[in-house]
Amino acid sequence: MPDIINKLVANDFAALKGLTINGRVPVQDQVINELIAEFLTRGQASQTSTQPPSNGGAAASYQTDSPPTSKPNITMSDAIKFLKKAEVKADAGKVILDFEIAI
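The structure corresponding to this sequence follows.
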């Protein structure tokens, strides 16, 4: 799968021309708090050490148990240019992310 993603990125997603994805992601406050804690932990670790932070911590529970494979070579700048709409809304106990991606 990473090889396919890398090929799509290398060709600027031309094979997916016409693709439109509309989505809504409700994120509970507990997950947001864990992500913030992980972000702060990694930020502190990078300021005090040149070693990458361990995979332990809050975000580890969201990882799969799949064996490691080659990673897709995609950056935020590769993907963000296809973002057509992004809205963040707050609701009781969760944040709702509405988005549209079009290629």
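The first strand starts at residue 20 and ends at 28.
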